[in-house]
Every structure is written in C-alpha cells, then in structure tokens.
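tl;dr need the bound structure. longer version: we got a ligand (S-adenosyl-L-homocysteine) that a collaborator sent over and nobodys looked at where it sits. i said id run it. heres the input, straight from their email, havent touched it
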Amino acid sequence: MEEKTDIKSLTLEELKSCFKEQGIQGFRADQVYQWLHQKQAGSFEDMTNLSKELRRKLAEDYELAELKTADVKVSSIDGTRKYLFELKDGNVIESVLMKYRHGNSVCVSSQVGCRMGCRFCASTLEGLERNLRPSEMLDQIYQIQKDLVERVSHVVVMGTGEPLDNYDNLVRFIRMLTDEKGLNISQRNITVSTCGIVPGIIKLAEEGLSITLALSLHAPNDEVRKTLMPVANRYPLAQVLSACGTYFKRTGRRLTFEYSLVKGVNDDPKEAQALADLIKGYQGHVNLIPVNPIRERSYVQSDSHSIGAFKERLEKNGINVTVRREMGRDINGACGQLRKSYMDKNKEG
Ligand code: SAH
C-alpha cells in the first residue's frame, strides 16, 4: 500500500502544488496551512471553514502527524516541563519546556535515539531507531504551546539525536518554524547543537539561516575528546573548529561551545587553559554544564569548587562563559532518561 503524504511536513508552496494537481483551489492550501501551523489543528475534522466533503477527502489522501502526550512532569521549583510524546509508530520521544525571563524555550528531539555514542549521554545507549520527520519536530513545539496556552519564543535542538545526522529534515523544520505563515519564530531564537559533524556544519553555513550553532566540545584536545565522544575519531578538533570558523564567517552568528564538566576527566585548570587557548580566536561563548550522571556509566559531576575555578580561568583569558543553570532539578534526569526509564518499564511489563 502506498504511504500517504505527511501533510504537516509540506511547505506552503508544496501544499499548493499538491492541491493544484488534485484540482483543489489554491486558497484552500492557505487555509489548511494556517490550520496546521498557526492554529495547531489536531485533525482535518477541526478545519471548520472547509466543506465536510473536502475534509473527508483530505483525511483520505493525507496523513496528519499528531504527537500524543504519554507523560508530563512539571517542576514545582521553576515551572520546567518534561514531555514524553508518543509517535504514530509507537516510538516515544522527549521534549522539555523551560521558562526564562526572556521567554518560553522548547528543547526538541531530532531523532528517535542516536548513533553518536557519547559516553555520558543516555539518549544513545540503545542506538538510533529512526530520524524524526519535520512534522514530528514541529509538533513537539505545537503540542507544548497548546498545553501551555502561551507563546513559545525560543527553540533549541538539544534533545535526543544528532540534528546534523538528520540534515534535510532539520533544515526543512527550521524553515517551516520560522515561516511567517507558521509559528514565525525568529531565526535568531533558534539554536542547533551538534557533536561536530564537519560536512554538516559547512553545509549549514551556506543555508542563509541566522540560527545559532552550538558545538559540543567537552574537551580541549582530541585525546580526551575521543574518550568521551566516538565522533572525535572521525573528525579531529582542528577540522571541527575550522568548520565553526566558516560558519561564523558566513553567518555572522556567534558560536556557543558546550563543555560538560566530568570530575577527573576534563575539569582540571590545565584543561581550562588549553580550552581558552584553543578557542581564543573564535567569537564564541562557553556554556559549562556540570555533567548529569547516568546510571549506566560511572561519570561523576565536578564539584562546585572545580567548576568555579574552571570558569575563572576561562574568564581570566577573556572568554565569555556561563554555567548552565540546572532547570527543573526536582524532575531531573539527564537527557534521554525519561524516555529510557519509560522503555525499560515497558520491557519489564
Ligand atoms: N547531538 C547534539 C545535541 C544533543 S545533546 C550534540 O551532541 O550537541 C545536547 C547537549 O547535552 C550536548 O552538548 C551533549 O553533549 C550534552 N549532554 C548529553 N548528555 C549529557 C549529560 N548526561 N550531562 C551533561 N551534558 C550532556
């Protein structure tokens, strides 16, 4: 049986040309696009300014991706919400809403699982299941905005998955999310985080997008980086940083360097100095993340003294640095842990 077209992954132009082929009037495409991307309609049935006949036809010809909320955990400390969403094929993914003074920020997943194998990360323990479609990335934000009844202003692609390993769907997702006929989120409020896939970074630099690129660095040299991130065997730091330099030159967007501090592995003041030397020439900002320990690995979070000393050393070298505030501490669990515990529970049951 032929698969139905995933209507929420189509751009307005594509929807128009599909409708044209089917003999549906052009302005209907505008109406349907608005229902899908501005009013977050859950079904064709909801699109009340279309005739019953047309709604029935659309339901026959198209698939409408709609995530089901399987679980939500709300922090009583700062309002952070962790969502577990179920996809049509039964897979589950995680998204997180964080409330900041500057707005509501959603952290979205880009894949079901991940194949990058970072040693400290829970999302990669079971490998990659499949890529998420643009519609499934968009719907994480749509569902959260509906639940919140407030506008989502910022999006970070820092949930499960490596966004540049799902490149085409990622770029389509960003274009649709920032489309003025959709949620119209500013490109400047979107951050994509990568473990350092060099060809992907270089390609992204040429897309004409004004989004922020965050690089997961986690070590000041290849030797330590390889012990934490298998991807470092494929792309040496020199190449990764040179690609980041290209990104900055082409887009004018300042880079973010993420550095998860692991006790006794990458948190020595000597490593802070090496990090400062490494990134001095880049217009970057360092985000220090005390590593979130996962049950399956023995990594331990750096103590607050080491974190402070690390930060100070970077600052002495004129590097702009922040320590990531822990959000939703009471509902915490490292990235991917909510999904993992849900899957383990279902396996046992
Ligand atoms: N694959 C992308 C985006 C997903 S992870 C990437 O690698 O950047 C988002 C960030 O969280 C990355 O910097 C990642 O290395 C970090 N991270 C993952 N698990 C973590 C943990 N247990 N503790 C601290 N940081 C973690």
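gonna send this back to them w/ a short note. The longest strand covers residues 92-100.
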